[in-house]
Amino acid sequence: MAGIEIPTELQKKIEETGPVDLMVGVSGPAGEELCAKAAGSLHGIAAKTVVVYAGGEGSAPVSCPAPSIPLVAYPMRAAQSSFPLWADIALAQQSILALAAAWKVRACVMIQSDLAALNAETIRLFAEPALEGRSDLIMPVYPHGKYDGLITKALLSPLSRALFGRRVRFPLAFDFCAGAKALAILTGHSSSHNGNGSHLMWPANAVAMRGGQIGQAAVNVQHSIQTGDLELSAILAELAGSLFQEIETNAADWQRVRGSQPVSRYGGEFVLKHDAQPVDPRPMVESFVLGSRNLEEVWRLVLPPTTMLELRRLARMSAEQFRMTDALWARIVYDFALAHRMRRVSRSHVLGALTPLYLGWVASYTQEVGGATAEEAERRIEQLARVYEEQKPYFVSRWRWPERAS
Amino acid sequence: MEPETITTGAATRKRSTGSASDPVWYKDAIFYELHVKAFADSNHDGIGDFKGLIEKLDYIVDLGATCVWLLPFFPSPLRDDGYDIADYMDVHPSYGTLDDFREFLSVAHERGLQVMIELVVNHTSDQHPWFQAARNAPPGSPERDFYVWSDTDQRYKDARIIFTDTEKSNWSWDSVAQAYYWHRFFSHQPDLNFDNPRVLEEVLKVLRFWLDMGVDALRLDAVPYLVERDGTNCENLAETHTAIKAMRAAIDEGYENRMVLAEANQPPANVRPYFGDADECHMAFHFPLMPRIYMALSQEDRLPITDIMAQTPEIPESCQWGLFLRNHDELTLEMVTGDERDYMYLAYSVDPRMRINVGIRRRLAPLMDNNRGRIELLNSLLFSFPGTPILYYGDEIGMGDNIYLGDRNGVRTPMQWSGDRNAGFSRANPARLYSPVIMDAIWGYEAINVEAQEADPSSLLNWMRNMIALRKLFKVFGRGTLRFLEPSNRRILAYLREYEGEQVLCVANLSRVWQPVQLDLAGLEGLIPVEMLGYVEFPAIGPGYYPLTLGPYDFLWLELQTTSATTQEE
């Protein structure tokens, strides 16, 4: 793999151990709890298992008296990205992929360094379909309520689904499992598309493009919120920008895909949370209106006149009346993806100008599902995904002939 | 990446890797041919140079080209625009230095561009030290033997004269050597003697010199004429192929992912041997196709195209045709019949000044009378025919030519970057430019330039960018098979391209007026044609003829989609 060098000592260890069935890769440094959690969750899943975690300068190796599962530290490269948290995870994932290839593993479960996914049930849900050859890649579906993960629901998931053709709910999850075929795909994809290694990995999209079988597992994993004090616009820019880049890189592939296919499901029904607190849409509508005043110059360079007219109409509405249609939102996302590719405006400006529009859609969504159950909200999200698919020809058409649309 | 050190006997040399990772990268490539001298002048001396070219590489990348083909840039008296080389291993001082070239190569590679240069080894300049040594050396000496000498000008009488406007014989008398020397081109370009093994050794040194530097591809200039034999026309001889095989073997032995392209202006059947069994050239120009495309357009009849393609043999899997509409030379009519040549002269060169040798010295846009529809149609054929398209600098903006300049210089004028002085090409005194820029009202740089077309969403430049980007999305164009359809309306050219399950139907109206057509698409029933530029679904193909109507010079690229990939319910 490009840019990943396995230290001699580690290489020697790999040779001594020989091929491994299951690797659990922790995409970051781990604490002492790794020892107990690994021991408690990994027995009986595969004949030969190894756990790898990020080590490196300044971090002491996990001390594990008489470990029943080998724990191996891999060197962690320093991230150069302005988003240290996710860049670190991306770099760690690259290292884990390199180790998985060197160890010739049959399945590799990637988990976040909070170890929330390191429990017997989750590892089994992830690993078994890969080890048994039922799926090449298993993505998680986390428990979620109607207001959780809205960037994923509004943009990342439906856009990935429409373009890459697989109905994956969390396409950017940092917990997932890759079987041998998916590992080969991700290793190749990563070397050819990832200059400095800090580009976020979109495993489901990459595997879908190479014809791999994808499954989704209903995992009962709750991560602590990682975005901390980061601003919404920065998070949205990072995530949307990463997906837009992925779209540009794979343009020759996703334009062949028509419609979408369901993926295999593991672990029963997805867990929906019903304890959502009411959301006030007014601040979001205000942000939209403010954006329509301050960012219209950028919007006009990105969006066609008909969209601009609809946005102006929306900006005149009261918060109660405010409704951005799914079709309008999907076309906006497609136009922003195109503007990101065309670079007629700087990418940071393009991505920054997306936030008020996103808030406009979220305001509409929260009003629509305010009185709905979690199940009804799920159907609402499914409806949005279908609209993205319906609008895909608009995107392909504009991508192929990117003159200003009407 | 650091160059690798190679030791051969007592000699050591540095070898850089090429920039491509796919061994057949040239199949999906878009070539962009340019003169260093004509592209951009960084030091204001009126002549383009490598530093200027480096500054313009982003333009080439934005256009969508993937390989830059540089015309000769070596030290030369420049009596044949650099094809008269006086030193194979250096850069002409007007264009910069070897270090400038290395920098250019490095920057091009950083931008994902491959680089092809010229290997002009059929002949040298008469100023080359080899020739100066040869003419002063005694007959039979190793130095003398680098060239082809004779006491008489009656040998090889069956070899045609190529530059008919200037040369009366392929032999010229050298008063120093007191002998005739052989030249297939200008008399100041003596042919090297490939019967002498030392010549091939020296050629391989040249080849390695550039490939070691990291150059990705070499164009073998005038390759059919390397060897001469009495009783033949001195073209395409077996001994010539032996020499090419030796060059290819040296490349395969020492380098990965490099390419050689044959310039063999011959009928397709005679070009086929230049691919060998995939052990000679990776690519060869398809010379006869080009004039026939123009003929088909003028006659509004597809026959000239389908006829020449029917004569085009299969080539090895790893090989590829190089396709072009125009290049730095005249639109050559050597590979058409006498009647066809007369027709082409009448159709495309009203003014005799437009003709040179056996061809027409004009650029694409003037040949098309600046008709945007015709320019687009021809480019659509270039981008959709089996082979790798090669663009000539300036044709992407519809640059004109200057028929009042001598030789082929009328199509080698400075690139028109903007409406500024000297077309933005140079800040030198206009009188100092290597060639005047084009200044007339229709073709002048104030009317046609990059800056204006970049600002105009409907410009030819933006159209070309879109078309190139579209072509690059579909490997079928570079790698797929070709099958012509035969609708009764011969003004319509229709063909099917197929590659690994990907099918594209191309339909072109060669006529200046609307045309109906009924296509026999038997075997494709049920497929849905999707117009590729706008991604618009057409009616599904049924059991009968498929009717289409095309406006003047319209073309359609239709991706044939199956119906099975629609959304499945969960």
Structural overview:
Chain A has helices spanning 8-17, 33-41, 84-103, 120-131, 150-164, 180-193, 203-209, 232-249, 251-254, 282-294, 296-302, 305-315, 326-342, 347-352, 355-369, 374-400, and strands at 22-26, 49-55, 71-75, 107-111, 137-141, 176-179, 214-218, 264-266. Chain A has 406 residues and is an alpha/beta fold. Chain A folds into two domains: 8-266, Spore Coat Polysaccharide Biosynthesis Protein SpsA, Chain A; 282-400, no CATH class. Chain A has an eight-stranded mixed beta sheet with strand order 3-2-1-4-6-5-7-8, with helices on both faces. In chain A, helix 3 crosses helix 6 (180-193), helix 5 (150-164) packs across helix 16 and helix 10 (282-294) packs antiparallel against helix 15 (355-369). Chain B has three domains: 15-122 and 193-472, TIM Barrel (Alpha-Beta Barrel); 129-182, Alpha-Beta Complex (Oligo-1,6-glucosidase, domain 2); 480-561, Golgi alpha-mannosidase II (Immunoglobulin-like), CATH 2.60.40.1180. In chain B, strands 3-4-5-9-10-11-12-16 form an eight-stranded parallel beta barrel. In chain B, strands 17-18-19-24-21-22 form a six-stranded antiparallel beta sheet. In chain B, strand 21 (528-531) and strand 22 (536-537) form a beta hairpin. Chain B is globular. Chains A and B meet through helix 16 of A and helix 15 and strand 22 of B.
